[in-house]
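Hello,

Our lab assistant flagged a job as stuck in the queue for most of the afternoon. It eventually completed. Since we weren't sure the result was trustworthy after the delay, we are filing this so someone can double-check. Below is the sequence as submitted and the structure that was eventually returned. Let us know if re-running is recommended.
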Amino acid sequence: MNAIETEKLTKTYGSSRGITELKLTVSSGDFFGFIGPNGAGKSTTIRTLLGLISPTSGSAKVLGLDIVSQKNEILSRVGYLPSEINFTSGMKVSDVIKYSADLRHKNCKDISDVLCERLGIDTGKKVDDLSLGNRKKVGIVCAVQHEPELLILDEPTSGLDPLMQREFFDILTEQNKNGSTIFFSSHILSEVQNHCRSAAFIRDGRIIVSDKVEKLEETGAKKVTLSGGFDTDGLSGINDLKIENDVTSFLYKGDVRLLLKKLAESNLSNVNITEPSLEEIFMNYYEG
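-- returned structure --
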């Protein structure tokens, strides 16, 4: 059984675009990154999958359950971290965490205590006094403490400092090793490259590529950076061409022999040919 499976899932807001005919499959036990810039449709996808908003058309299942008719059971079995965290004013952090556990009829105190210590959370504080980062940390505890089958996290690292981001991903990795499927959205490509096994890339409400991260990295393209005068005329397979002062850079997927011949004929002071980063690969998808 797949953890998430959609078929032509569409959500529109009147004449405004949300998501369009999404076909997405997330295998059980996967560590999956959902990538795209702000406004691409990541949060709309997540809220639709959780039944928090109704789809316009299409269908989807989460943990084998229909997102429309079985949304309450989905919410009981999933851990969810929204991109923006808000709590009921006047509550203490400890009350919020306990309330989240009580909603699922579970005693999570032992686990929540460990998580709070690892994330440096003062449970005696009022939620009104928390910074963005500390609200996000409390949200992480509420999402993880009941050890859900599926964790859905929307831009989870925003507001977290680098040390807390590292601890957060350590927690996710442990949950994944214990059997939880991880699905998180991000516009930070290095997070996906460093932690995910699979990823999908969404643009303007549509998924344009979805595969194993290692497959996405195996495009066959090379990142070429050259210092000195270089004329790209006669070379095909060039993308993302940039020329600044005497430095020329581009992604190259053409005939390597032609490139080497061209380099040998040019007056260059430096040549650097490397594997492109995931960010450069995906930006090439966007520009295409």
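-- support follow-up --
The delay was a queue issue, not a problem with the job. The result is valid. The radius of gyration is 22 Å. The longest helix spans residues 162-177.
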